[in-house]
Amino acid sequence: MPTGIGNIYADEALWRARNHGERIAAKLTRPALRVLLSEVQTVMSEALRAGGTSFDALYVNGQSGYFERSLDAYGREDESCRRCGAPIRREKFMNRLSYSCLRCQPRPRR
Ligand SMILES: [Zn+2]
């Protein structure tokens, strides 16, 4: 399921950056974008440190490692946010399912 890899990165990084995906598509300030990109790097390096040579390998063998223990947003629908306790929501975003916290990652106003 290789198409899921980017989704996991994105959801985890957005959660850490307390940002909502729709704001990325719209207008994100430069500082906010920097935060987000650095969170993406953190997620990736943590995943690799958790025991893989590549993220693809981790994903394939994911059951035993990183994905079971370390995901804060992805795949945690209706579970409590580890930061604030609000439920994690699952919503459709840009033709994929996205996981985010109702409270930490408010949706932008239109
Ligand atoms: Zn939260």
From TrEMBL:
Metal-binding in keyword set: yes
Domain FPG-type as annotated: residue spans: 72-106
InterPro entries with a match to the protein in the record: H2TH_FPG, Ribosomal_uS13-like_H2TH, Znf_DNA_glyclase/AP_lyase, Znf_FPG/IleRS
SMART domains registered for this protein in UniProt: H2TH
GO biological process: base-excision repair
UniProtKB keywords: Metal-binding, Zinc, Zinc-finger
Record GO terms (molecular function): 8-oxo-7,8-dihydroguanine DNA N-glycosylase activity; damaged DNA binding; DNA-(apurinic or apyrimidinic site) endonuclease activity; zinc ion binding
Segments passing through the bilayer: none
Name the UniProt record assigns to this protein: FPG-type domain-containing protein
Organism: Nocardia panacis
